[in-house]
Amino acid sequence: MELINIPNSTNNINISNNNFNSNNNNNTKGVQLTFKNITYKVENRKYKKQLKKQTEARKKKNDDYESNNKPASFTDIKVEKELTILNNVSGVIEKGELCALMGPSGSGKSTLLDILAERKSTGKITGKLLINGKEVGDAYKKFCSYVTQEDVLLQTATVFETIKFYADLKLPEMAEEEKIKRVEQVIEDVGLTKRRDSKVGGILPGGIIMKGLSGGEKRRVSIGCGLVTNPSLIFLDEPTSGLDSVTALSIMKTLLDLTKTKGCTIIASIHQPRGEIFELFNKVMVVIKGKMIYSGNNILQYFEQLGYTCPNNMNPADFCLDAAVEIGDGDRYDEICTQWQKIWENEIVNEITQPFIAVEKPKATPWSYQYYILLKRSWKDFLRNQGNFIARVGTAIVTGLLFGACFAGLKETEADVQKIIGVIFFLITGLNLTPFAVISLFLSQRTLFNAERASKVYHSFPYYLAMVTVETFVVLLVALINATICYLIAHLRWDASYFFYAMMIYFFVHLLSDFLICTLANLTGTSDMTFAYGSGFCVIFMLFAGFYVPVQELPVSFGWLHYINPLFYSFVSLMQVQFKDLPIKCSQPANSTIPCQFNNGNQVLSYYGIDEWSRDESFGIVILWAAFFFTTSYLALHYLNREKR
Ligand SMILES: Nc1ncnc2c1ncn2[C@@H]1O[C@H](COP(=O)(O)OP(=O)(O)OP(=O)(O)O)[C@@H](O)[C@H]1O
After folding, report:
1. What phi and psi values does residue 156 have, to the nearest 5 degrees?
2. Residues 552, 452: one domain?
3. Ligand 1: which residue has its CA nearest to atom 13?
4. Tens-digit pLDDT profile for residues 569-620
5. Is the domain of 56 the same as that of 189?
6. Are residues 180 and 51 in the same domain?
7. Is the predicted ipTM greater than 0.95, yes or no?
8. What do you get for the CA distance between the two ends of the chain, in Å?
9. Distances from the Cα of 23 to the Cα of 164, 209, 255, 486, angstroms
10. Per-residue pLDDT tens for 176-194?
11. Ligand 1 mean position, distance from CA 6 (Å)
12. d(CA 214, ligand 1 centre) in Å
């Protein structure tokens, strides 16, 4: 087939509706993006399975041949260790262009967009990304901003706070006044001036619904977050998905305005836009099965030359998608891909329309500053979403009062020894179980964290520290309220040194349980599994804590479990605090012949087989367990359940 002469993509940008010529844009901010020979390969996880299937099919073919003397119907499938998701994809997008990335589902649009935005952390990527014709290394990030398909935003933050959060973390060196000005400007640019102080809203963790922004407004906030750094290149993954057609058109017009007024270069993957939206684009790129088959401003003409004519009155976007599907499924796919590759190599590849600009490597925001900003946000979020906090504190008060009522006015007598031990054990059990109330909170925070980490807004460690700081404060309050009420009414060992020591232990019991649940939530990523594993752990912890069965009576085969049980060490240290060297009044009448079971607290400790354990060492082990779960929780947050792309 003869080569089709494609109008030079940079010289003839002539859009019917808006008469916009990207090269006439006076703004100096935008850049030209060229991507050359981008190939993306991932490991084929089904390789072994596919290979086995192929071997079996081959064997069957041979067997059939030998037994029937005729070949079985068998097509040899190509099994490869690596899957090629994008294959030698190239293109150029001019300064100030609004470019649509189109293609059938699964063609590789999102993958290409992720690679162009340098967001891919898995697989092997080869090829070049050039800004105004030159590779700029790490400075590339300074040009880019990426807006995800889903709006993952903090529900309790206002529009201003959400965008300011990005400004704080991405522009650490900018003066506060200037930052505020920038944020206000962005809010105006995305058309949210009237909603500046409205909360984002949505379903809060735990199910409470907070009134807030509409779907379109949330999309505008997400775009605003991407605009705050004044990026030259903006990538949007399906910016109109999930929106009604009027809102979608209005969002796209806002984006077009950004190309005109700020000279931004915008690339948006788009599925099936309505006609008016399609006409807003200055350029269309079509990817089919991981290969580029067209890039330019006159796709209908190109398809016509290929033999696909758009019928009158048909939405051109629908037509393009239908044609793309047909090409992908048809026999001419390879020929059309090769043809486009030749056009690219012969006519487009070396066009550099913008002068080279030297850009410094972006400066990293210090972790201490990230922690400060994240703590500020977490604290505000906590204050605005107090449902969970009130429920936890309320439960602590009620259970404290009920424990107190059941065990009120205990005395240091032989008759009350069992009840005192009961109070201690049930307090630690209650504090061990309370963190189950936080599962949905942890999981919801995780979703936001994943999205923000993918945007490289902050490092996971300052984020984790900020989250843990707020959580530790709540844990401290809950533990102290619960245990203090109970101690007040039940009259456990009350001298200041014993009381505060006991409170510290209760605090750490609660803290380590909280970190355990956080670890499980971060490990599993689902509430059901966190609940299932968490309850399993808690039951085992209780059983082997030394209360129901004294440690010396535990079965030999499982008895060792108490050595790795944080609740056992908590129980031991609290029992030591309560009973060590405590005189106990005998409950038998003076003339009774029945001997007193306990004359002092040490005999109680001995009965439970924990008299040899030291209070401080046991408490030290409780602290170590808290530190252990603190670490596992962070490692699971950092390494597991990442965004899947
Ligand atoms: N890491 C990966 N491992 C295996 N397959 C992958 C990986 N990343 C992408 N793919 C596959 O590559 C193809 C392209 O995916 P991509 O999400 O880029 O398509 P898309 O054009 O954006 O699709 P859609 O319009 O449905 O979102 C899909 O078949 C997808 O399953």
Report:
1. -85, -5
2. yes
3. 106
4. 999 999 999 999 999 988 777 777 777 888 899 999 999 999 999 999 999 9
5. no
6. no
7. yes
8. 38
9. 32, 47, 17, 75
10. 999 999 999 999 999 999 9
11. 29
12. 29
Residue nearest to ligand 1 atom 28, measured at CA: 106
Domain housing 453:
367-639
Do 390 and 526 lie in a common domain? Answer: yes
pLDDT over 70 percentage in the chain: 90
What CA–CA distance (Å, rounded) separates 419 from 15?
84
Number of domains in the chain: 3
Q: Within this chain, do residues 64 and 212 fall inside the same structural domain, yes or no?
A: no
- Based on the domain organization, do 59 and 161 belong to the same domain? no
Taking CA atoms only, the protein residue closest to ligand 1 atom 30 is 106
Sequence-distant (6+) residues with CB within 8 A of 176 are none
Backbone angles phi, psi at 402, to 5 degrees: -70, -40
Mean pLDDT of 378-392: 89
Locate the ligand 1 atom nearest the alpha carbon of residue 237 and give its number.
Answer: 22
| CATH value at residue 168 | 3.40.50.300
Residue 51 vs residues 42, 48, 71, 640: alpha-carbon distances, Å: 17, 5, 21, 29
Where helices occur in 285-386 by DSSP H, the ranges are: 299-306, 316-329, 333-343, 367-384
Residues 73 and 188 in one domain: no
Q: Whose CA is nearest to atom 12 of ligand 1?
A: 85
232, 266, 300: which is the final residue of a domain?
Answer: 232
CA atoms within 13 A on the CB side of 259: 29
Domain termination residue (choose one: 232, 267, 300): 232
Nearest CA to ligand 1 atom 16: 108
The verdict on residue 336 lying in a domain is no
Pocket test for ligand 1, best of 110, 112, 643 (most atoms within 8 A of CB): 110
Domain assignment of residue 551, yes or no? yes
| Torsion angles phi and psi, residue 522, rounded to 5 | -70, -30
Within 6 Å (CB) of ligand 1, which residues are found? 42, 83, 85, 103, 105-111, 122-123, 271
Residue 113 has pLDDT above 60, yes or no: yes
Report phi then psi at 286, rounded to 5.
-120, 125
Residue 394 belongs to some domain of the structure: yes
Ligand 1 geometric centre to CA of 106 (Å)? 5
Does 613 lie in the same domain as 491? yes
> Does residue 346 sit within a domain?
no
Q: Which atom of ligand 1 is nearest to the CA of 123?
A: 1
